[in-house]
Amino acid sequence: MLVGRKYRLSLTAEQAEMAEEFGNICRSVWNTALEQRREYRRRGAWMNYVPQAAELADAKREHEWLRAAPSHVLQQTLKDLDKACRTHGTFKVGWRSKTRWNPSFRFPAGNLITVERLNRKRGRAKLPKLGWVVFRWSRHPGGEVRSATVSRKAGHWYISFLVEDGVLPPGHHAGTPVGIDRGVVVAATTSTGKFYDREFATTGEKTRYRRLQQRLARTRKGSANRRKTVASMSRIMVRVTDRRADFTAWTANRLTARHSVVVLEDLRTKNMTASAKGTEAEPGRNVRQKAGLNRAILDKGWHRMELAIRNAARSTGTQVVLVDPAYTSQTCNRCGHVDAKNRESQAVFVCTACGHRGHADVNAAKNILSAAGHAVPACGDLGVTRSVKQELPGPREAVPVRLAFELVGIPRL
Fold it and tell me: Residues 319, 324, 326, 327: what is their CA dihedral angle, to the nearest 10 degrees?
């Protein structure tokens, strides 16, 4: 299988300057090629990778600055653009801004890349034109390197190797199926009654980030103070993003190791987090409430969770199934009654028809599992030895929500 291995680079000042130049050249090639594609589409014509690659070769003869970057790196940029335009559409592919885009470029020729280990903590890789670059040896690549991507994030440079590890995808999985409900309060809830969640930003980081946002609003565009403020904000967000990535990978590993089928809702996260501002002619409604919901959805990493589960499923043989998310949170899993009033609050579900009472997220997860054609037994045991109680002991008001379930996952900060 093809797997990724990411390491932190220790570039020299000359190498960092050269990598910055490569990234700027790739950004310029991306924007120029995208503008050409859009102009062709406006005329009713098409432009693809082959003629653009030929024009790039001609442009390198005329413009010396284009020759600073390796040819196959620029060609790979055109290939990435071609794939993005075919997948999303020419006018939906975004520009690469000088201030908002982190430089990155890919070396697609694995035969030109050499990786060696120097000592217990350091390794090095030989890249075209960059030469030998040293990186932190956190683990062995574990296979043949197919390509390498160099990127910058919050002031640090990283290298990602695409490696062929020689491991064949497993076949049958002996686990049980499970439904996953993704929420804005608890990141993931399973149909067996487990809750996976954690906080990704500490209270101090939230306060610090809010103050930096206020400082950013008072700075002048293009000033040195603005660049420093943006860099400080990036350092905080990198830590938050890394914690979220670690949590989703940790959760996906445990779900795919224990279950043969993982059922998720087919959510369009990008559409769900679109702004509600509207236009001047038709202004949006409840804009502030919608903005808060968007932040909550993005903070829990719904799309990242799905990607992590799909990635982990390749190593375990787990099947990932997507189902229609309509009415999963309003349907009673016991009798099938659909009513918006069934959900009394975010965590409490009480069926208005049969009186079934339970945790709303667990009920939704069971509906998601049933929508994929997997039956949920009355006790929710799914063929395992220990059953999971479907109802809480006693009135819901007497049992605090925090004590009604136990969070499974990385401890909160």
Answer: -40
SS (H, E, C) 336-368: CCECHHHECCCCEEECCCCCCEEEHHHHHHHHH
pLDDT digits (tens, 9 = 90+) for 82-134: 999 999 999 999 999 988 888 999 999 999 999 999 999 999 999 999 999 99
Q: Can you read off the two tokens belonging to residue 238?
A: 């990198």
User: Within this chain, do residues 326 and 402 fall inside the same structural domain, yes or no?
Assistant: yes
Q: Is-catalytic flag, 265?
A: yes
Q: Is there a single domain that holds both residue 127 and residue 258?
A: no
Residue 271 pLDDT grade (very low, low, confident, very high; cuts 50, 70, 90): confident
Active-site residue, from 361, 381, 391, 397: 361
The model carries a pTM of 0.82
> Do 195 and 314 fall into the same domain?
yes
Confidence of residue 280 (pLDDT cuts 50, 70, 90): low
Residue type for position 308: A
Question: Could you tell me if 182 and 130 lie in one domain?
Answer: no
Summarize the confidence of residues 271-295 as an average pLDDT. 80
The single residue of 265, 280, 344, 397 carrying the catalytic annotation is 265
Rounded-to-5 percentages of helix, strand, coil across the chain: 45, 20, 35
The single residue listed with the structure tokens 């002991």 is 393
Residue 339 annotated in active site: no
pLDDT average, residue stretch 13-32: 96
What is the domain count for the chain?
3
Instruction: Give whole-number Cα distances, 375 to 177, 345, 381, in Å.
Output: 10, 26, 11
Is residue 197 among the annotated active site residues? no
Catalytic member of 82, 181, 197, 306? 181
Task: Give the residue numbers spanning the domain of 194.
Answer: 173-413
In this prediction, residue 17 carries a pLDDT of 95
- The stretch 54-68 carries a mean pLDDT of 93
Q: Are residues 382 and 234 in the same domain?
A: yes
